Amino acid sequence: MVKKTEKTSQNPMAALLKKQAPSLLTKGKEVEAKIVSLSKKGIVFDVGGKAHAILGELEIREVSTYLPYLKAGDKILARVISEESKNGFPVVSLRKFFEKGKWEILKEKKEKEEEIEVFCGDYGKGGVFIDFMGIRGVIPKIQLTEPFISSPEKLTGQKVKVKILEVDKEKNRLVVSQKASVLKISQKDLKKKFDAIKENKTYKAIVLGASEFGVFCEVEGVEGLIHISEISWEKISNAASYVTVGETIDVFVVEKNTVDLKLNLSLKRLSNDPWKSIEERYPKDKEVDG
């Protein structure tokens, strides 16, 4: 007697339907939303449901700020706020993305070395203050090109393209470079130039500018600072009086900052320390005229 084989295979159509069954969308649930289309009027998402989801009306006004940084196919974490609207579509919120997404955009742009457009505000002690989607940042003066490095205030009220040097959400820190954008400077290439420079060696440097902190220079394509205390063995109060913008000078590399790829430079260490021979010139208990 032939034993009847137990039918375990599933109907192909049923299996296909099961495979394609829409995920259950419940209010408050977080889902991965894939952008299908976007415009100033709103965004349409594929959330794996029976119908595409739409952005809540109260958040549509914020979309225009993000449009230049989003595209069809991008995936964003969204929260379901309505399983079905009056139009029959699920409604989602991007509130978490609006709060966190700006920093994620900046982080991704930095990693890919892509440009962003920022709005320039006033020029202050740290450089030109900028705004990117509500996030405040700065373009250090040394990260500008002419004519702005000579007159940073000319950037006030302008939109400029920049590359990101530092982005840290925890520290609320954003540092960008207009020079890197204009001159198409690659961070990877900069790292190679930085690695080639040796500490305790003398190099030729181009003077970029001066401030109350010291003199800004460029050594073989790498930026550096001669701190005001490293300009002379004598105490000085005006760094600008010792150099001329555009001139080439000899500098001594004191230290390399591997975090921001900058150099700590010195002028005074190219000459002898006068204090080292002070005891030889003026021995203890010896009387001198003067």
UniProtKB/TrEMBL annotation:
<keyword id="KW-0689">Ribosomal protein</keyword>
<comment type="similarity">
    <text>Belongs to the bacterial ribosomal protein bS1 family.</text>
</comment>
<dbReference type="InterPro" id="IPR035104">
    <property type="entry name" value="Ribosomal_protein_S1-like"/>
</dbReference>
<dbReference type="GO" id="GO:0022627">
    <property type="term" value="C:cytosolic small ribosomal subunit"/>
</dbReference>
<dbReference type="GO" id="GO:0006412">
    <property type="term" value="P:translation"/>
</dbReference>
<feature type="domain" description="S1 motif">
    <location>
        <begin position="28"/>
        <end position="95"/>
    </location>
</feature>
<dbReference type="InterPro" id="IPR012340">
    <property type="entry name" value="NA-bd_OB-fold"/>
</dbReference>
<protein>
    <submittedName>
        <fullName>30S ribosomal protein S1</fullName>
    </submittedName>
</protein>
<feature type="domain" description="S1 motif">
    <location>
        <begin position="200"/>
        <end position="268"/>
    </location>
</feature>
<dbReference type="InterPro" id="IPR003029">
    <property type="entry name" value="S1_domain"/>
</dbReference>
<feature type="domain" description="S1 motif">
    <location>
        <begin position="113"/>
        <end position="179"/>
    </location>
</feature>
<keyword id="KW-0687">Ribonucleoprotein</keyword>
<dbReference type="GO" id="GO:0003729">
    <property type="term" value="F:mRNA binding"/>
</dbReference>
<dbReference type="InterPro" id="IPR050437">
    <property type="entry name" value="Ribos_protein_bS1-like"/>
</dbReference>
<dbReference type="Pfam" id="PF00575">
    <property type="entry name" value="S1"/>
</dbReference>
<dbReference type="GO" id="GO:0003735">
    <property type="term" value="F:structural constituent of ribosome"/>
</dbReference>
